[in-house]
């Protein structure tokens, strides 16, 4: 069936790109279909904070005109995308889900946006997120929670729940997220989509509003492994404006995604990231996926990473410490919200009033923890000790990768929980990232992909694949092989089972 005869919003990005390239459908038609879908369902989902209706249509028409003129365009040319509202885009509101940045329109593009424009991707708008990427449920947005399209009473994960929900609701075939402790992978897990945290430094952070500079990493999100690889290839590569950007060739992730063969690969099952503490249905679907990998010819071995048990504690010292430093720039003096500026108050009073009104409770909580951890007399005891644990976790990964080509675990310990269930219990919320945090501390690459529905609630379960630094292609090789085997079993992608809104 030609794409023009089908429902455009349900097609994957690779299919849409091929159809646009062949002239079967225009980028304008595809973009209009997705904008119409956003108008239809986003009132319930709330994936978007800002929709670029006119700009997106103008971009699509320009791409169609260039193609008609015979220009050679990129492999994703004309395909729509949803952008997490933590990346700058010239003249477009960038709030980071916070009141303190209300009204700020950046005067420059982030490198990720520059590369999306160069790839002729159509940006539909900016997606909702936990404030300054602090959260695991997208309930900490100053603009209200995003809802999981599988069940509108449940969370879509966080902090990038808006991007994941946009994919799951068929509002966009591609999305960009950022991952500081699991903010791409955990939303992918609970929405039945695919999300990749690239190697730290593999995708530029220039123009990414920083939470924790040594942990933050932009990355691709989609509904299929191949789509994710195509987007990864479009945004990755060295950027001299980012001092942490890696000067090395980007692994051929697209070729790996098309290989779909794990024969001869050694897959390490991380002992510390499975078993007790995981929802029964999560463990069940994970075990079934491990069996599939074995049947496909992979050798599955158990590996131990004993210092992973300290990862959560170390992370929640390092992240707040870096956040307390990075967020000091939001003071009401230069951009965004300004409170109490009546001419009678001092600069210090205006700053205090602005931060009190502009920052939400989770952001304030982490700023206070981080400032305390960095204070005189406590730096070595807290922040310094956490960095030592980080080194031990990196060494655990290095040792494990001498025994296996990739490591695997469940992505999240549970399926999507109900909105409100954990918002007042920070520790319970933080435990959602127990399996994803070690990767960020070490700077490795990791993917989450859907492996089925938990029998007790019918909600998606994700499997995490982890690879050594700059071996991102291994994620796509394993992910595509597993995805293909599951599609053969189910007869369709898991996302096709998502309830219609």
What's the arrangement of secondary structure elements?
Blueprint: H1 13-22, H2 27-45, E1 48-51, H3 53-68, E2 80-84, H4 111-118, E3 122-127, H5 161-168, E4 174-178, H6 185-191, E5 194-197, E6 218-222, H7 225-235, H8 253-259, E7 266-270, H9 280-295, E8 299-303, H10 311-326, H11 347-358, H12 361-373, H13 380-400, E9 406-410, H14 426-430, H15 437-442, E10 445-453, E11 460-467, H16 472-490
Parallel strand pairs: 2-3, 2-4, 7-8, 7-9
Antiparallel strand pairs: 1-3, 4-6, 5-6, 5-10, 9-11, 10-11
Helix pairs in contact: 2-3, 7-8, 8-16, 10-12, 10-13
Task: Summarize the structure in words.
The longest helix has 21 residues, at 380-400. Helix 2 (27-45) runs antiparallel to helix 3 (53-68), helix 7 (225-235) packs antiparallel against helix 8 (253-259) and helix 8 (253-259) packs parallel to helix 16. This protein has an 11-stranded mixed β-sheet with strand order 1-3-2-4-6-5-10-11-9-7-8, with helices on both faces. The chain is built from 16 helices and 11 strands. It is an alpha/beta fold. The protein is globular and about 70 Å long. 39% of the residues lie in helices and 12% in strands.
Helix content: 25-40%
Number of helices: 16
The Cα radius of gyration reads 21 Å
What share of the residues does DSSP label as strand, in percent?
5-15%
- List the secondary-structure elements in sequence, H or E: HHEHEHEHEHEEHHEHEHHHHEHHEEH
**Tell me, what's the shape?**
globular
Sheet with the most strands, sense and barrel status:
11 strands, mixed
Class by SSE composition = alpha/beta
Round the mean pLDDT to the nearest integer and report it.
96
Compute the number of strand runs.
11
Gap from first CA to last CA: 25 Å
The low-pLDDT segments are none
- The side-by-side strand order for the widest beta sheet comes to 1-3-2-4-6-5-10-11-9-7-8
């Amino acid at each position: 069936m030609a794409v023009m005869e089908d429902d455009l919003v349900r097609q994957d990005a690779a299919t849409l790109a091929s159809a646009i390239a062949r002239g079967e459908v225009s980028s304008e038609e595809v973009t209009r279909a997705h904008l119409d879908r956003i108008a239809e369902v986003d009132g319930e989902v709330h994936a978007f904070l800002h929709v670029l209706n006119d700009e997106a249509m103008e971009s699509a028409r320009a791409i169609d005109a260039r193609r008609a003129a015979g220009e050679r365009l990129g492999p994703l040319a004309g395909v729509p995308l949803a952008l997490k509202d933590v990346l700058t885009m010239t003249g477009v509101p960038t709030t980071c889900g916070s009141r303190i940045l209300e009204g700020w329109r950046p005067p420059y593009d982030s490198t990720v946006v520059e590369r999306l424009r160069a790839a002729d991707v159509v940006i539909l708008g900016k997606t909702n997120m936990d404030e300054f990427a602090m959260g695991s449920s997208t309930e900490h947005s100053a603009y209200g929670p995003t809802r999981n399209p599988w069940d509108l009473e449940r969370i879509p994960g966080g902090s990038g729940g808006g991007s994941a929900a946009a994919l799951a609701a068929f509002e966009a075939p591609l999305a960009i997220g950022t991952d500081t402790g699991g903010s791409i992978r955990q939303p992918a897990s609970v929405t039945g989509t695919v999300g990749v945290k690239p190697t730290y430094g593999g995708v530029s952070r220039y123009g990414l509003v920083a939470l924790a500079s040594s942990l933050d990493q932009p990355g691709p999100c989609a509904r299929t492994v191949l789509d994710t690889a195509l987007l990864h290839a479009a945004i990755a590569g060295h950027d001299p404006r980012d001092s942490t950007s890696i000067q090395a060739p980007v692994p051929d992730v697209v070729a790996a995604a098309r290989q779909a063969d794990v024969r001869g690969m050694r897959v390490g099952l991380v002992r510390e990231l499975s078993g007790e503490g995981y929802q029964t249905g999560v463990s069940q679907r994970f075990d079934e996926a491990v069996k599939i990998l074995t049947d496909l010819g992979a050798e599955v071995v158990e590996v131990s990473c004993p210092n992973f048990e300290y990862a959560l504690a170390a992370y929640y010292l390092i992240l707040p410490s870096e956040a307390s430093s990075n967020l000091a720039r939001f003071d009401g003096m230069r951009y965004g919200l300004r409170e109490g500026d009546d001419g009678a108050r001092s600069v210090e009073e205006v700053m205090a009033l602005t931060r009190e009104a502009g920052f939400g409770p989770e952001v304030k909580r982490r700023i206070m923890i981080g400032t305390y951890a960095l204070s005189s007399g406590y730096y070595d005891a807290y922040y310094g000790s956490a960095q030592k644990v980080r080194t031990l976790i990196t060494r655990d990964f290095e040792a494990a990768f001498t025994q296996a080509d990739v490591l695997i675990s469940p992505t999240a310990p549970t399926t999507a929980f109900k909105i409100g269930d954990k918002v007042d219990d920070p520790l319970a919320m933080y435990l959602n990232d127990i399996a994803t945090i070690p990767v960020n501390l070490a700077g490795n690459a990791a993917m989450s992909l859907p492996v089925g529905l938990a029998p007790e609630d019918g909600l998606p379960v994700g499997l995490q694949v982890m690879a050594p630094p700059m071996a991102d292609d291994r994620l796509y090789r394993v992910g595509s092989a597993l995805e293909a085997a599951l599609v053969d079993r189910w007869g369709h992608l898991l996302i096709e089972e998502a309830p219609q809104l």
